[in-house]
Design goal:
Distance between the termini: 9 Å
Oligomer: single chain
Structural class: alpha/beta
Shape: globular
Number of helices: 9
Keywords: ATP-binding, Nucleotide-binding, Transport
Helix content: 25-40%
Protein name: ABC transporter ATP-binding protein
Largest sheet: 7 strands, mixed
Number of domains: 2
Bound molecules: adenosine-5'-triphosphate
Pfam family, one: ABC_tran
Organism: Belliella filtrata
InterPro entries: AAA+_ATPase, ABC_transporter-like_ATP-bd, ABC_transporter-like_CS, ABC_Transporter_VariousFunc, P-loop_NTPase
Order of helices and strands: EEEHEEHEHHHEHEEEHEEEHEH
């Protein structure tokens, strides 16, 4: 799938953003890419999409260096940037034709369903769609493309509240086994219960890469009037403490599914870091 090896990157005449970055993305996963403003999420997405060239090392999709932008890579990848730009003079149905023919596995029936859910019709002129509607059009196209790599940069930015919930609904369970999706966001709540893995990027470095299932094996995410002795990370709230504690330290507390916001803050504070990946070693090239 996506393999990044010893990758360095900087924008021209700017300080280095990534140094010696290594990452392997498994297929069949929805991956949340989290980071503070300026952490390098969009830069990493653009490197994976082949829109930026690494200064050193490699960014590959299967055996294609992404920056070569070979057709065999491009017709397996959809990148939706944070600020979508769609040809405004076209009608939705004409715009769809361009994509339909480019992606071999494009599912037009699926697209029609998604457009209904997002309340967009084929006869609408793109110039008459709002920014959020244009974004939903791109999301619907991406999810219907059958492409193996879906890179969505801040997909929920600009979406109203009902559309965010539709986004969550259409995404959950929609990924095929041979597809991988990366969703970059700093709106952690928007991807809660949606992602299989999470990556936390901080100042161009991967601080955490984890399967949520593996995190549940390692840690308990819980809340109580007072955090127990040995908690790794604690946040005080009105009704008590939200905390993370190692499985072996927790006594009789099974907690809930990982609280991504709590996890993110713990990683940024340097309380948790590293790889928590279940099967990755088996599939790593
Ligand atoms: N085209 C560019 N030229 C020069 N520097 C850039 C460019 N784009 C981004 N940067 C810088 O690279 C760093 C990473 O930016 P990037 O947009 O990748 O972060 P981000 O995590 O996506 O941030 P945000 O959450 O605010 O969207 C920042 O310091 C930013 O100022």
């Amino acid at each position: 799938m996506v393999t990044i090896e010893k990758m360095d990157f900087s924008y021209p005449k700017k300080p280095t953003i990534c140094r010696g970055l290594n990452l392997f993305l498994e297929q069949g996963k929805i991956i949340g890419l989290l980071g503070l403003n300026g952490a390098g999420k969009s830069t990493l997405m653009r490197l994976m999409a082949g829109l930026l060239k690494p200064k050193a090392g490699a960014v590959k999709f299967d055996n294609h260096a992404t920056f070569e932008r070979e057709v065999a890579f491009l017709n397996q990848m959809v990148f939706i940037p944070e600020k979508v730009s769609v040809p405004e003079f076209l009608k939705v149905k004409d715009y769809v034709i361009v994509y339909k023919d480019f992606y071999e596995g494009f599912d037009i029936g699926r697209l029609e369903e998604l457009l209904v859910q997002f309340k967009i019709t084929g006869n609408q002129r793109i110039s008459n769609l709002s920014f959020g509607q244009q974004k939903k059009l791109q999301i619907a196209i991406g999810l219907s493309s059958g492409a193996k790599l879906l890179l969505f940069d801040e997909p929920t930015n600009g979406l109203d509240i009902p559309s965010k919930s539709t986004f969550r609904k259409v995404l959950s369970g929609s990924l095929q086994e041979d597809q991988t999706m990366v969703i970059s966001t700093h709106q952690v709540k928007d991807i809660e219960n949606l992602v299989d893995q999470v990556i936390v990027l901080d100042e161009g470095m991967i601080k955490l890469h984890a399967d949520l299932a593996e995190l549940e094996n390692e840690f308990v995410f819980s809340q109580a009037a007072k955090a127990p002795e040995g908690a790794i990370y604690v946040e005080s709230h009105l009704l008590g403490a939200h905390y993370i504690i190692g499985q072996s330290e927790s006594v009789g507390d099974s907690g809930g599914s990982p609280d991504l916001e709590l996890l993110f803050n713990a990683v940024i504070e340097g309380k948790i870091s590293g790889e928590f990946l279940t099967n990755q070693k088996l599939v790593k090239p």
